[in-house]
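Tutorial sheet, problem 5. The two components below are modelled jointly, 494 residues in total.
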Amino acid sequence: MSDRALVVVRAGALTTVQDEGRPGHAHLGVPRSGALDAPAAALANRLVGNPRGAAVLETTLDGCALRPRSPVAVAVTGAPCPVRLDGRPVAWGAPVRVPAGAVLEVGAAVRGVRGYVAVGGGVAALPVLGSRSTDLLSGLGPAPLTDGTVLPLGPPAGLPAAVDVAPRPGPAAELVLRVVLGPREDWFTARALRVLATRPYRVSSASNRVGLRTEGPALERARTGELPSEGMVLGAVQVPPDGRPVVFLADHPTTGGYPVIAVVRAADLPAAAQAAPGTPVRFVPVRRS
Amino acid sequence: MRVLPVGSDALLVEVASGAQAEALHAELLRRRAAGLLRAAEIVPAARTVLLDGLAEPDRVARELRAARVPPAAARGERTVELPVRYDGPDLAAVAAHWKVAEREVARVHAATEFRVAFCGFAPGFGYLTGLPERCHVPRRATPRTAVPAGAVALAGPYTGVYPRSSPGGWQLIGSTDAVLWDHTRAPAALLAPGTRVRFVPEEPV
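Model answer (C-alpha coordinates):
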Protein backbone atom coordinates (compact mmCIF):
# COMPACT_ATOMS: atom_id res chain seq x y z
CA MET A 1 0.00 0.00 0.00
CA SER A 2 0.93 3.61 -0.12
CA ASP A 3 2.76 3.55 3.22
CA ARG A 4 5.74 1.99 1.40
CA ALA A 5 6.91 5.46 0.53
CA LEU A 6 9.60 7.96 1.28
CA VAL A 7 8.90 11.65 1.92
CA VAL A 8 11.64 14.04 0.86
CA VAL A 9 12.04 16.48 3.75
CA ARG A 10 15.07 18.26 2.26
CA ALA A 11 15.95 17.58 -1.37
CA GLY A 12 19.42 19.11 -1.27
CA ALA A 13 21.24 20.83 -4.12
CA LEU A 14 20.61 18.05 -6.63
CA THR A 15 19.24 14.65 -5.69
CA THR A 16 18.14 12.26 -8.43
CA VAL A 17 16.88 8.71 -8.73
CA GLN A 18 19.50 6.44 -10.32
CA ASP A 19 19.93 2.78 -11.20
CA GLU A 20 22.12 1.08 -13.80
CA GLY A 21 20.76 3.34 -16.54
CA ARG A 22 19.28 2.59 -19.95
CA PRO A 23 22.09 1.43 -22.25
CA GLY A 24 21.14 0.06 -25.66
CA HIS A 25 19.21 3.07 -26.95
CA ALA A 26 22.08 5.33 -28.05
CA HIS A 27 21.05 4.96 -31.70
CA LEU A 28 17.80 6.79 -30.81
CA GLY A 29 19.68 9.63 -29.10
CA VAL A 30 19.00 8.26 -25.60
CA PRO A 31 21.89 8.68 -23.13
CA ARG A 32 22.80 5.71 -20.93
CA SER A 33 22.41 7.66 -17.66
CA GLY A 34 22.64 5.73 -14.35
CA ALA A 35 24.57 6.23 -11.09
CA LEU A 36 27.87 8.06 -11.73
CA ASP A 37 29.69 6.16 -8.99
CA ALA A 38 28.22 2.78 -9.90
CA PRO A 39 30.25 0.70 -7.39
CA ALA A 40 29.08 2.95 -4.53
CA ALA A 41 25.45 2.60 -5.63
CA ALA A 42 25.85 -1.18 -5.92
CA LEU A 43 27.37 -1.34 -2.43
CA ALA A 44 24.50 0.67 -0.94
CA ASN A 45 22.03 -1.75 -2.53
CA ARG A 46 23.95 -4.76 -1.21
CA LEU A 47 23.97 -3.32 2.31
CA VAL A 48 20.16 -3.14 2.41
CA GLY A 49 19.63 -6.48 0.65
CA ASN A 50 18.50 -5.02 -2.68
CA PRO A 51 19.44 -6.44 -6.07
CA ARG A 52 22.27 -4.54 -7.74
CA GLY A 53 20.01 -2.75 -10.21
CA ALA A 54 17.54 -1.32 -7.66
CA ALA A 55 17.00 2.43 -7.88
CA VAL A 56 18.81 4.53 -5.26
CA LEU A 57 19.10 8.27 -4.60
CA GLU A 58 22.20 10.13 -5.80
CA THR A 59 22.93 13.28 -3.80
CA THR A 60 25.28 16.11 -4.76
CA LEU A 61 27.58 17.70 -2.14
CA ASP A 62 24.99 18.61 0.51
CA GLY A 63 23.02 15.38 1.00
CA CYS A 64 19.27 15.28 1.67
CA ALA A 65 16.76 14.40 4.40
CA LEU A 66 14.15 11.64 4.10
CA ARG A 67 11.22 10.38 6.18
CA PRO A 68 9.92 6.88 5.40
CA ARG A 69 6.22 6.16 6.06
CA SER A 70 7.02 2.60 7.09
CA PRO A 71 10.09 1.06 8.76
CA VAL A 72 12.88 0.56 6.21
CA ALA A 73 16.53 -0.40 5.99
CA VAL A 74 18.72 2.38 4.59
CA ALA A 75 22.42 2.61 3.71
CA VAL A 76 24.44 5.66 2.70
CA THR A 77 27.60 5.23 0.61
CA GLY A 78 29.66 7.19 -1.91
CA ALA A 79 30.99 10.51 -0.65
CA PRO A 80 31.57 10.10 3.13
CA CYS A 81 29.25 12.29 5.21
CA PRO A 82 27.63 12.47 8.64
CA VAL A 83 24.33 10.54 8.88
CA ARG A 84 21.76 11.27 11.59
CA LEU A 85 18.52 9.60 12.57
CA ASP A 86 16.19 12.05 14.35
CA GLY A 87 19.31 14.02 15.23
CA ARG A 88 21.38 11.10 16.61
CA PRO A 89 24.51 10.04 14.71
CA VAL A 90 24.22 6.66 12.97
CA ALA A 91 26.59 4.70 10.75
CA TRP A 92 27.66 5.73 7.24
CA GLY A 93 28.37 2.82 4.90
CA ALA A 94 26.30 0.35 6.92
CA PRO A 95 22.64 -0.70 7.07
CA VAL A 96 20.52 1.47 9.37
CA ARG A 97 16.97 0.65 10.51
CA VAL A 98 14.78 3.72 10.11
CA PRO A 99 11.43 3.58 11.96
CA ALA A 100 8.29 4.91 10.28
CA GLY A 101 8.14 8.69 10.58
CA ALA A 102 11.77 9.14 11.69
CA VAL A 103 13.94 11.60 9.74
CA LEU A 104 17.15 10.35 8.17
CA GLU A 105 19.49 13.28 7.59
CA VAL A 106 22.24 12.67 5.04
CA GLY A 107 24.73 15.45 5.73
CA ALA A 108 27.11 17.39 3.53
CA ALA A 109 29.96 15.41 1.97
CA VAL A 110 33.14 15.56 4.02
CA ARG A 111 34.98 14.81 0.79
CA GLY A 112 33.85 13.66 -2.62
CA VAL A 113 30.69 14.85 -4.36
CA ARG A 114 28.04 12.16 -4.78
CA GLY A 115 26.33 10.23 -2.03
CA TYR A 116 24.11 7.18 -2.55
CA VAL A 117 21.11 6.36 -0.40
CA ALA A 118 19.70 2.87 -0.89
CA VAL A 119 16.38 1.98 0.72
CA GLY A 120 15.16 -1.59 1.18
CA GLY A 121 12.89 -2.43 -1.76
CA GLY A 122 14.38 0.31 -3.90
CA VAL A 123 12.79 3.50 -5.19
CA ALA A 124 9.84 2.39 -7.32
CA ALA A 125 9.55 5.41 -9.62
CA LEU A 126 8.05 4.72 -13.05
CA PRO A 127 10.66 3.16 -15.35
CA VAL A 128 11.34 4.72 -18.76
CA LEU A 129 12.90 2.38 -21.34
CA GLY A 130 13.60 -0.09 -18.56
CA SER A 131 15.33 2.33 -16.19
CA ARG A 132 14.33 4.63 -13.34
CA SER A 133 17.37 6.87 -13.79
CA THR A 134 16.97 10.63 -14.06
CA ASP A 135 18.73 11.76 -17.21
CA LEU A 136 19.53 15.44 -16.86
CA LEU A 137 20.58 15.88 -20.49
CA SER A 138 17.37 14.71 -22.10
CA GLY A 139 14.90 14.93 -19.23
CA LEU A 140 13.99 11.23 -19.20
CA GLY A 141 13.07 9.51 -15.95
CA PRO A 142 11.81 11.04 -12.70
CA ALA A 143 12.41 14.75 -12.14
CA PRO A 144 15.13 15.72 -9.64
CA LEU A 145 13.73 15.61 -6.11
CA THR A 146 12.16 18.68 -4.54
CA ASP A 147 11.16 19.24 -0.93
CA GLY A 148 7.93 17.34 -0.31
CA THR A 149 8.37 14.80 -3.14
CA VAL A 150 6.89 11.42 -2.17
CA LEU A 151 8.73 8.45 -3.66
CA PRO A 152 7.07 5.01 -3.79
CA LEU A 153 9.18 2.09 -2.54
CA GLY A 154 9.24 -1.48 -3.85
CA PRO A 155 8.67 -4.53 -1.64
CA PRO A 156 11.81 -5.45 0.33
CA ALA A 157 13.73 -8.05 -1.64
CA GLY A 158 16.23 -9.52 0.79
CA LEU A 159 17.83 -9.24 4.17
CA PRO A 160 20.24 -6.41 4.89
CA ALA A 161 23.82 -7.57 4.58
CA ALA A 162 25.64 -8.62 7.74
CA VAL A 163 28.40 -6.05 7.33
CA ASP A 164 29.46 -3.72 10.08
CA VAL A 165 31.04 -0.95 8.07
CA ALA A 166 31.88 -0.91 4.37
CA PRO A 167 35.31 0.31 3.28
CA ARG A 168 35.63 4.04 2.75
CA PRO A 169 37.23 5.45 -0.35
CA GLY A 170 40.64 7.00 0.20
CA PRO A 171 40.96 10.77 0.07
CA ALA A 172 40.95 11.96 -3.54
CA ALA A 173 43.74 14.52 -3.29
CA GLU A 174 44.32 14.09 -7.00
CA LEU A 175 42.19 12.55 -9.73
CA VAL A 176 44.32 10.28 -11.90
CA LEU A 177 42.57 9.29 -15.12
CA ARG A 178 44.18 6.59 -17.23
CA VAL A 179 43.33 7.24 -20.86
CA VAL A 180 43.64 5.34 -24.12
CA LEU A 181 44.46 7.81 -26.88
CA GLY A 182 42.07 8.15 -29.82
CA PRO A 183 39.97 7.87 -31.81
CA ARG A 184 40.72 11.46 -32.94
CA GLU A 185 44.18 12.12 -31.52
CA ASP A 186 45.27 12.95 -35.09
CA TRP A 187 43.18 16.15 -34.82
CA PHE A 188 45.69 17.49 -32.28
CA THR A 189 49.29 18.64 -32.44
CA ALA A 190 52.11 16.55 -30.96
CA ARG A 191 52.47 19.33 -28.41
CA ALA A 192 48.81 19.00 -27.40
CA LEU A 193 49.29 15.27 -26.79
CA ARG A 194 52.34 16.07 -24.62
CA VAL A 195 50.38 18.72 -22.73
CA LEU A 196 47.53 16.29 -22.05
CA ALA A 197 49.96 13.67 -20.73
CA THR A 198 52.13 15.93 -18.60
CA ARG A 199 50.38 19.10 -17.48
CA PRO A 200 48.04 19.39 -14.50
CA TYR A 201 44.36 20.20 -14.92
CA ARG A 202 41.72 21.02 -12.34
CA VAL A 203 38.08 19.98 -12.06
CA SER A 204 35.91 22.90 -13.14
CA SER A 205 32.86 23.98 -11.17
CA ALA A 206 30.91 23.71 -14.43
CA SER A 207 31.08 19.89 -14.15
CA ASN A 208 27.82 17.95 -13.95
CA ARG A 209 26.34 14.52 -14.72
CA VAL A 210 26.93 15.12 -18.43
CA GLY A 211 30.64 15.76 -18.13
CA LEU A 212 33.59 16.45 -15.90
CA ARG A 213 34.86 19.77 -17.21
CA THR A 214 38.43 20.81 -16.64
CA GLU A 215 40.48 23.97 -16.38
CA GLY A 216 44.07 24.02 -17.59
CA PRO A 217 46.18 24.45 -20.69
CA ALA A 218 44.24 24.47 -23.96
CA LEU A 219 44.87 21.54 -26.31
CA GLU A 220 45.86 22.83 -29.71
CA ARG A 221 44.32 21.33 -32.82
CA ALA A 222 46.40 20.21 -35.76
CA ARG A 223 43.51 20.78 -38.13
CA THR A 224 40.64 23.17 -38.47
CA GLY A 225 37.14 22.52 -39.66
CA GLU A 226 34.30 20.55 -38.24
CA LEU A 227 34.18 16.88 -37.51
CA PRO A 228 30.92 15.35 -38.76
CA SER A 229 28.84 14.16 -35.78
CA GLU A 230 29.90 10.73 -34.55
CA GLY A 231 28.94 8.34 -31.78
CA MET A 232 30.30 9.08 -28.31
CA VAL A 233 31.23 6.64 -25.54
CA LEU A 234 31.21 6.91 -21.76
CA GLY A 235 34.56 8.34 -20.64
CA ALA A 236 35.28 10.06 -23.97
CA VAL A 237 37.63 13.03 -23.50
CA GLN A 238 36.06 15.52 -25.88
CA VAL A 239 37.85 18.76 -26.69
CA PRO A 240 35.52 21.69 -27.49
CA PRO A 241 36.81 24.81 -29.27
CA ASP A 242 38.15 26.34 -26.02
CA GLY A 243 40.67 23.45 -25.88
CA ARG A 244 39.81 22.31 -22.31
CA PRO A 245 39.08 18.58 -22.16
CA VAL A 246 35.66 17.38 -21.00
CA VAL A 247 35.27 13.80 -19.73
CA PHE A 248 31.87 12.41 -20.68
CA LEU A 249 29.92 10.95 -17.76
CA ALA A 250 26.65 8.96 -17.70
CA ASP A 251 24.30 11.64 -19.11
CA HIS A 252 26.59 12.40 -22.07
CA PRO A 253 25.12 13.08 -25.51
CA THR A 254 25.09 10.01 -27.77
CA THR A 255 26.69 11.83 -30.71
CA GLY A 256 28.95 14.84 -30.90
CA GLY A 257 30.97 16.90 -33.30
CA TYR A 258 34.04 17.81 -31.27
CA PRO A 259 37.05 15.51 -31.57
CA VAL A 260 37.69 12.90 -28.86
CA ILE A 261 41.40 12.90 -28.06
CA ALA A 262 41.26 9.92 -25.67
CA VAL A 263 38.94 7.71 -23.63
CA VAL A 264 39.15 7.28 -19.83
CA ARG A 265 39.37 3.72 -18.50
CA ALA A 266 35.97 2.65 -17.14
CA ALA A 267 37.57 1.73 -13.81
CA ASP A 268 38.60 5.37 -13.23
CA LEU A 269 35.16 6.92 -13.84
CA PRO A 270 33.76 6.37 -10.31
CA ALA A 271 36.63 8.51 -8.96
CA ALA A 272 35.82 11.16 -11.58
CA ALA A 273 32.25 11.23 -10.22
CA GLN A 274 33.65 12.03 -6.76
CA ALA A 275 36.18 14.72 -7.74
CA ALA A 276 35.06 18.08 -6.35
CA PRO A 277 35.66 21.34 -8.23
CA GLY A 278 39.29 22.40 -7.80
CA THR A 279 40.63 18.84 -7.50
CA PRO A 280 43.86 18.42 -9.53
CA VAL A 281 43.44 16.08 -12.51
CA ARG A 282 46.17 14.15 -14.28
CA PHE A 283 45.63 12.30 -17.58
CA VAL A 284 47.89 9.26 -17.92
CA PRO A 285 48.03 7.62 -21.36
CA VAL A 286 48.04 3.82 -21.13
CA ARG A 287 47.92 0.97 -23.61
CA ARG A 288 44.61 -0.21 -24.89
CA SER A 289 43.88 -3.47 -23.09
CA MET B 1 37.07 1.96 -44.39
CA ARG B 2 39.07 2.91 -41.27
CA VAL B 3 38.55 1.06 -38.02
CA LEU B 4 39.58 3.22 -35.07
CA PRO B 5 39.85 1.80 -31.55
CA VAL B 6 37.84 3.77 -28.96
CA GLY B 7 38.88 3.06 -25.37
CA SER B 8 39.08 -0.61 -24.48
CA ASP B 9 35.81 -2.03 -25.77
CA ALA B 10 34.56 0.12 -28.64
CA LEU B 11 35.38 0.72 -32.31
CA LEU B 12 34.62 3.67 -34.54
CA VAL B 13 34.29 2.59 -38.16
CA GLU B 14 34.79 5.47 -40.56
CA VAL B 15 33.70 5.42 -44.20
CA ALA B 16 33.78 7.94 -47.05
CA SER B 17 30.13 8.90 -47.40
CA GLY B 18 26.74 8.94 -45.76
CA ALA B 19 25.56 6.23 -48.16
CA GLN B 20 28.45 3.98 -47.11
CA ALA B 21 27.66 4.63 -43.45
CA GLU B 22 24.08 3.59 -44.16
CA ALA B 23 25.25 0.39 -45.87
CA LEU B 24 27.70 -0.40 -43.06
CA HIS B 25 25.03 0.21 -40.42
CA ALA B 26 22.64 -2.16 -42.22
CA GLU B 27 25.35 -4.82 -42.49
CA LEU B 28 26.29 -4.51 -38.79
CA LEU B 29 22.63 -4.82 -37.74
CA ARG B 30 22.34 -7.89 -39.97
CA ARG B 31 25.42 -9.44 -38.35
CA ARG B 32 24.13 -8.73 -34.87
CA ALA B 33 20.70 -10.19 -35.68
CA ALA B 34 22.43 -13.30 -37.08
CA GLY B 35 24.45 -13.73 -33.88
CA LEU B 36 27.74 -12.94 -35.65
CA LEU B 37 28.38 -9.73 -33.72
CA ARG B 38 27.91 -8.96 -30.05
CA ALA B 39 27.69 -5.23 -29.40
CA ALA B 40 25.77 -3.33 -26.72
CA GLU B 41 25.33 -0.30 -28.96
CA ILE B 42 25.48 0.21 -32.73
CA VAL B 43 25.33 3.96 -33.32
CA PRO B 44 25.31 5.28 -36.88
CA ALA B 45 26.32 8.87 -37.55
CA ALA B 46 27.27 11.10 -40.49
CA ARG B 47 30.35 9.18 -41.72
CA THR B 48 30.81 6.57 -39.02
CA VAL B 49 29.24 3.72 -37.13
CA LEU B 50 30.21 3.29 -33.48
CA LEU B 51 30.27 -0.20 -31.99
CA ASP B 52 30.25 0.01 -28.19
CA GLY B 53 30.33 -2.69 -25.55
CA LEU B 54 32.27 -5.24 -27.60
CA ALA B 55 33.44 -8.41 -25.87
CA GLU B 56 36.23 -8.95 -28.43
CA PRO B 57 37.04 -5.61 -30.08
CA ASP B 58 40.29 -6.78 -31.69
CA ARG B 59 38.64 -9.74 -33.39
CA VAL B 60 35.76 -7.54 -34.61
CA ALA B 61 38.27 -4.97 -35.91
CA ARG B 62 40.10 -7.67 -37.89
CA GLU B 63 36.83 -8.98 -39.34
CA LEU B 64 35.70 -5.50 -40.35
CA ARG B 65 38.99 -4.67 -42.04
CA ALA B 66 38.60 -7.81 -44.15
CA ALA B 67 34.87 -7.32 -44.74
CA ARG B 68 33.11 -6.43 -47.93
CA VAL B 69 30.05 -4.34 -47.20
CA PRO B 70 27.25 -4.77 -49.72
CA PRO B 71 25.56 -1.52 -50.75
CA ALA B 72 22.47 -0.88 -48.65
CA ALA B 73 19.58 -2.62 -50.34
CA ALA B 74 16.36 -0.70 -50.71
CA ARG B 75 15.11 -2.25 -47.50
CA GLY B 76 11.44 -2.30 -46.71
CA GLU B 77 11.81 0.53 -44.24
CA ARG B 78 8.59 2.12 -43.15
CA THR B 79 7.72 5.63 -44.34
CA VAL B 80 6.49 8.14 -41.78
CA GLU B 81 4.43 11.10 -42.96
CA LEU B 82 4.74 14.23 -40.86
CA PRO B 83 2.05 16.91 -41.24
CA VAL B 84 3.77 20.28 -41.55
CA ARG B 85 3.01 24.00 -41.71
CA TYR B 86 5.74 26.00 -43.40
CA ASP B 87 5.50 28.91 -40.98
CA GLY B 88 8.99 29.03 -39.40
CA PRO B 89 10.64 32.33 -38.46
CA ASP B 90 13.72 31.52 -40.60
CA LEU B 91 11.79 30.69 -43.79
CA ALA B 92 12.83 34.00 -45.38
CA ALA B 93 16.49 33.49 -44.43
CA VAL B 94 16.46 29.98 -45.91
CA ALA B 95 14.77 31.26 -49.08
CA ALA B 96 17.54 33.85 -49.36
CA HIS B 97 20.20 31.13 -49.00
CA TRP B 98 18.50 29.02 -51.66
CA LYS B 99 17.93 32.16 -53.78
CA VAL B 100 14.25 31.25 -54.26
CA ALA B 101 10.86 32.48 -53.03
CA GLU B 102 9.62 31.27 -49.62
CA ARG B 103 6.87 29.16 -51.13
CA GLU B 104 9.49 27.43 -53.28
CA VAL B 105 11.29 26.37 -50.08
CA ALA B 106 8.04 24.78 -48.93
CA ARG B 107 7.47 23.14 -52.32
CA VAL B 108 10.98 21.64 -52.54
CA HIS B 109 10.97 20.50 -48.92
CA ALA B 110 7.55 18.85 -49.22
CA ALA B 111 8.57 17.10 -52.46
CA THR B 112 11.74 15.58 -50.96
CA GLU B 113 11.94 11.99 -49.76
CA PHE B 114 13.98 12.07 -46.56
CA ARG B 115 15.69 9.30 -44.70
CA VAL B 116 16.82 9.26 -41.07
CA ALA B 117 20.60 9.02 -41.40
CA PHE B 118 21.11 8.91 -37.64
CA CYS B 119 19.71 10.15 -34.33
CA GLY B 120 21.28 12.25 -31.60
CA PHE B 121 21.08 15.59 -29.82
CA ALA B 122 17.91 14.49 -27.99
CA PRO B 123 15.82 11.31 -27.75
CA GLY B 124 13.83 11.05 -30.97
CA PHE B 125 15.79 13.72 -32.86
CA GLY B 126 16.62 12.37 -36.31
CA TYR B 127 19.13 13.83 -38.75
CA LEU B 128 17.22 13.58 -42.04
CA THR B 129 19.07 13.56 -45.36
CA GLY B 130 17.58 14.01 -48.80
CA LEU B 131 17.90 17.69 -49.69
CA PRO B 132 20.23 18.37 -52.63
CA GLU B 133 23.52 20.11 -51.91
CA ARG B 134 22.34 23.49 -53.21
CA CYS B 135 19.76 23.48 -50.41
CA HIS B 136 22.27 23.04 -47.58
CA VAL B 137 22.27 26.00 -45.16
CA PRO B 138 24.51 27.10 -42.27
CA ARG B 139 23.37 27.12 -38.67
CA ARG B 140 22.13 30.42 -37.28
CA ALA B 141 24.96 32.69 -36.14
CA THR B 142 23.27 32.96 -32.74
CA PRO B 143 21.44 29.88 -31.45
CA ARG B 144 18.00 30.37 -29.94
CA THR B 145 17.71 29.70 -26.22
CA ALA B 146 14.35 27.99 -26.78
CA VAL B 147 13.09 26.27 -29.92
CA PRO B 148 9.52 24.95 -29.54
CA ALA B 149 8.70 21.24 -29.74
CA GLY B 150 7.67 20.27 -33.27
CA ALA B 151 9.82 22.90 -34.98
CA VAL B 152 10.97 21.71 -38.42
CA ALA B 153 14.50 22.94 -39.00
CA LEU B 154 17.46 22.89 -41.38
CA ALA B 155 21.22 22.92 -40.77
CA GLY B 156 24.02 21.79 -43.05
CA PRO B 157 22.73 18.90 -45.17
CA TYR B 158 20.10 17.93 -42.58
CA THR B 159 16.47 18.46 -41.73
CA GLY B 160 15.36 17.79 -38.17
CA VAL B 161 12.29 18.09 -35.97
CA TYR B 162 12.75 19.16 -32.35
CA PRO B 163 11.09 16.46 -30.18
CA ARG B 164 10.76 18.86 -27.25
CA SER B 165 11.48 22.48 -26.45
CA SER B 166 15.24 23.01 -26.23
CA PRO B 167 17.97 25.47 -27.19
CA GLY B 168 18.93 25.18 -30.83
CA GLY B 169 20.85 26.80 -33.65
CA TRP B 170 19.05 25.34 -36.67
CA GLN B 171 17.05 27.43 -39.14
CA LEU B 172 13.33 27.02 -38.45
CA ILE B 173 11.18 26.65 -41.55
CA GLY B 174 8.00 25.09 -40.19
CA SER B 175 6.18 23.19 -37.47
CA THR B 176 4.46 19.86 -36.99
CA ASP B 177 1.96 18.50 -34.48
CA ALA B 178 3.47 14.99 -34.77
CA VAL B 179 4.78 13.60 -31.48
CA LEU B 180 8.38 12.61 -32.20
CA TRP B 181 9.05 11.05 -28.82
CA ASP B 182 6.65 9.51 -26.32
CA HIS B 183 8.20 7.14 -23.81
CA THR B 184 4.79 5.63 -23.00
CA ARG B 185 4.43 4.58 -26.64
CA ALA B 186 6.09 1.56 -28.27
CA PRO B 187 8.27 2.39 -30.02
CA ALA B 188 8.95 5.62 -28.15
CA ALA B 189 10.77 7.16 -31.09
CA LEU B 190 8.74 7.94 -34.22
CA LEU B 191 11.98 8.18 -36.20
CA ALA B 192 14.84 5.68 -36.04
CA PRO B 193 17.91 5.32 -38.28
CA GLY B 194 16.73 4.15 -41.71
CA THR B 195 13.14 5.43 -41.41
CA ARG B 196 11.93 7.20 -44.55
CA VAL B 197 10.14 10.49 -43.96
CA ARG B 198 7.88 12.76 -46.00
CA PHE B 199 6.59 16.13 -44.91
CA VAL B 200 2.95 16.58 -45.89
CA PRO B 201 1.77 20.22 -45.91
CA GLU B 202 -1.51 20.88 -44.11
CA GLU B 203 -2.22 23.56 -46.74
CA PRO B 204 -1.33 23.04 -50.39
CA VAL B 205 1.97 24.71 -51.32
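Marking note: Helices of chain A lie at 38-47, 190-198, 269-273. Full credit if you identified this.
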